[in-house]
From TrEMBL:
Ranges for domain U3 small nucleolar RNA-associated protein 20 C-terminal: 1-116
Organism of origin: Bombycilla garrulus
Protein name: UTP20 protein
GO cellular component: 90S preribosome; small-subunit processome
Protein origin, superkingdom: Eukaryota
PANTHER family linked: SMALL SUBUNIT PROCESSOME COMPONENT 20 HOMOLOG (PTHR17695:SF11)
Transmembrane segments: none
């Protein structure tokens, strides 16, 4: 997709790409700023190359304006998602509590898996799922 965006940009030329510049820059910016674990370095390099190509194509001033608008929009989206999560905990405390329990359970499982990988002889106790037993009220 990134190669396609670069090729279309070059094909359209300097004047005709300007209205579409924020649309083209959005996925490139997202790839440059992503920080997930399984990130492909070739994608990051490719997006950087295409950004450099766009800078040369449209000029630094036009590119900077478009890039800053994309950056601002991404930051606004991130802040809005964070605000939604905070509001959800207040509005629906039972759903938030369930999510929190699930997060803690996953964290414990990850910790056990990590310990097992570091020490192969050690076997961590795993929670067995007994659907009916878990649903029953225990006094």
């Amino acid at each position: 997709i990134f190669k396609f965006l670069g090729a279309i940009s070059v094909d359209l030329g300097q004047d005709r790409i300007k209205p579409y510049l924020p649309t083209v820059l959005t996925p490139l910016y997202r790839e440059l700023n992503s920080n997930y674990a399984e990130q492909d370095p070739t994608l990051k390099n490719l997006s950087q190359e295409i950004i450099e190509l766009l800078k040369k194509l449209v000029g630094l001033e036009v590119f900077s304006l478009a890039f800053s608008s994309v950056q601002k929009q991404a930051n606004q989206k991130r802040a809005m998602r964070k605000k939604q999560r905070a509001l959800e905990t207040v509005a629906n405390p039972d759903i938030a509590a369930r999510k929190k329990l699930k997060r803690h359970k996953n964290k414990a499982e990850t910790r056990k898996r990590k310990i097992e990988s570091l020490r192969p002889l050690y076997k961590a106790k795993r929670h067995r799922s007994h659907a009916l037993k878990d649903l029953a009220m225990v006094e």
